Amino acid sequence: MAITEITSIPKTELHMHLDGSIPIDVTWELMKRYDLSPCETLDEIETLLTMQQEDEASLLNYLDKFHYPLWITQFYENIQLVTRKILEGVARHNVTLVEIRYSPIVHTYAGLTVRQAIGAVLSGMNWAVETHGIQAGLVIIAMRQHGPHIAKILARQAIAEGQQFHERCGVVGFDIAGAERGNPPILFREAFGLARKGGLGLTVHAGEDEGPHLIWEAIDDLGAERIGHGCSAITDKELMNRLARDQILVECCVTSNYQTGAVRRGDRHPIYAFLEAGIPVAICVDNATVSRTDISRESAIVAEEVGLDLVAHIHSAAKKHSFIATGTGRYQRGACP
Ligand SMILES: [Zn+2]
């Protein structure tokens, strides 16, 4: 399959982390500018920022790669710049709609407020939208390990930067991420209640390193409209039926799922079972840099199994599940909370 064929398909990217998708040369240049680089060469920094063949497939090894980007994404201009560079890269793959996700609180160590950390991404997005004509929105992540109280604070800040208050890009959704074990979705019920009342779309990282019971919680207790990864759903027939019945979209990140061990190497990726069960799916990168991938590559992997036409259909159908108010999808520009 020619890569140009894949690249030319209009694409929808619904699950892409800012911190894990910064182009390596951009991180390298910023580290050198601030005299922060932990190593001597671009090759060395690449090893620190990306999963290596020899890295054991585990979520903790994967999350370890997010350490260094945080050194340079503590300043407004840098956050703005990396957002622009990420979206430039996305536009090269003919992505027409992209949701970037990000936890602003881990970008406040140098004194930015949470609102400024959000505003820096929105500003970078506005530039990219004007330059490349794509649609973009921000999903705010509460890290599970920070607990339910911080999540509520973030939900309120996210609502205050909601898309309905912006002429251009705004916050469109709310999410939780980080190690699932010990931090079940139910702990975050109040934060998600706030986010829902504030008009944000709800997605939850669930079923990546834990069983289907946490996907049930994400749906029943948090009201998730989309699930990030959701790999363990294939072990629960009733849950598969529920996802199909309620048309809850699963954001599938194939390469990442093998690297974190969410799917064992050699096993068939659950995206194909989701498709067969009538569950809406999106093809997403998760972290372009950490996973050494891009949306065309992820689309090509899926197209090998289901063909190019179905991949094109998946991308166009996923648009309806975006939290960005487009005037045509599920999400219209909401009322004030
Ligand atoms: Zn993710």
Mean pLDDT: 93
CA radius of gyration is: 18 Å
In the CATH hierarchy, the architecture is Alpha-Beta Barrel
What ligands can be seen in this structure?
zinc ion
Q: What is the helix/strand order?
A: HEHHHHHEHEHEHEHEHEHHEHH
* CATH class category label: Alpha Beta
User: What is the third-level CATH name, the topology?
Assistant: TIM Barrel
Provide the spatial order of strands within the biggest beta sheet.
Answer: 1-2-3-4-5-6-7-8
Residues in helices, as a percent range: 40-55%
Strand coverage percent: 5-15%
Put simply, the count of helices is 15
Number of domains: 1
Spans of at least 5 consecutive residues with low confidence:
333-337
Largest sheet: 8 strands, parallel
Tell me, what's the shape? Answer: globular
Structural class label: alpha/beta
The end-to-end distance, rounded to whole angstroms, is: 48 Å
Give the CATH H-level superfamily.
Metal-dependent hydrolases
Count the E strands: 8
Written account of the structure:
This protein has helices at 3-8, 24-33, 42-49, 59-63, 69-72, 76-92, 114-132, 147-160, 189-197, 213-220, 237-245, 254-260, 271-276, 295-306, 308-318; strands spanning 11-17, 95-102, 135-143, 171-177, 201-206, 226-229, 249-252, 281-283. It has a single domain (3-321), classed as Metal-dependent hydrolases (TIM Barrel), CATH 3.20.20.140. It has an eight-stranded parallel β-sheet with strand order 1-2-3-4-5-6-7-8, with helices on both faces. It is an alpha/beta fold. The protein contains 15 helices and eight strands. The chain is globular, with a radius of gyration of 18 Å. The longest helix is centred in the middle third of the chain and has 19 residues, at 114-132. The relative contact order is 0.15. The chain binds zinc ion (ZN). The site of zinc ion (ZN) has 6 residues, from strand 1.
